Amino acid sequence: MKFGQLSIDFLFAITLVTLLSVGIIGIGLQETKNSKALSIASEVKVFAISVRDLITKAYSMGPGYSVKMTLPFSISPGDFVNVSLSGNVLSIYANISGTMYSTSLKIPVGVTSNTSVLLTENSPSFWIIVFYNETEGGVDVKVAKSPNIG
């Protein structure tokens, strides 16, 4: 084996190792991005379940009861979370880091109001308010930025 042959073999081996390393790093970065998206989606789903459960508990307390809820995770400027009650369906739409996440849950109590609140970095809290709906003739629940029924 000549000296030049050894150098070419060595360069070939270094090139293969470099290509494999770049490929593995690329896969790792992609998986990190996917796991972060899954983590945010899980946080939104857990938040939706917490809101649904709190609506059910508040409804059982009856008219005049209200409870304040705050986002359990922080959001950046420009991000938002929309909490929407439409009949017996709770919908959560979140735009976090430019990605839209959404989930809808059926509420096991009789809600007839259609209300929604927009949560932002500066305003991460909202109220779940139970009141007597004279139009529908029964107990109802709404979401609002303040605890006032009006």
- Percent helix, as a range, is 25-40%
Number of E-state strands: 7
The strand line-up of the biggest sheet is 4-3-2-5
Tally of separate domains = 1
Largest sheet: 4 strands, antiparallel
Q: How do the helices and strands follow one another from N- to C-terminus?
A: HEEEEEEE
Q: Kindly, what is the distance between the CA atoms of the first and last residues, rounded to a whole number of angstroms?
A: 91 Å
Figure out the total of helices: 1
Quickly describe the structure.
This protein is of the alpha+beta class. The protein contains 1 helix and 7 strands.
Describe the structure.
The protein is α+β, with helices and mostly antiparallel strands and 150 residues long. The protein has one domain (3-144). Helices cover 39% and strands 33% of the residues. It has one helix at 3-61, and strands spanning 66-70, 80-86, 89-96, 99-106, 114-119, 125-133, 138-144. The strands form 2 sheets. Strands 4-3-2-5 form a 4-stranded antiparallel beta sheet, with helices on one face. The chain has a 3-stranded antiparallel beta sheet with strand order 1-6-7, covered by helices on one side. A hairpin with a 4-residue loop joins strand 6 and strand 7 (138-144). It is rod-shaped, with a radius of gyration of 26 Å.
Which tags fit this structure?
single chain, 150 residues, alpha+beta, 4-stranded antiparallel sheet, 1 helix, rod-shaped
Question: Any chance you could write out the topology, listing elements then pairs?
Answer:
Layout: H1 3-61, E1 66-70, E2 80-86, E3 89-96, E4 99-106, E5 114-119, E6 125-133, E7 138-144
Antiparallel strand pairs: 1-6, 2-3, 2-5, 3-4, 6-7
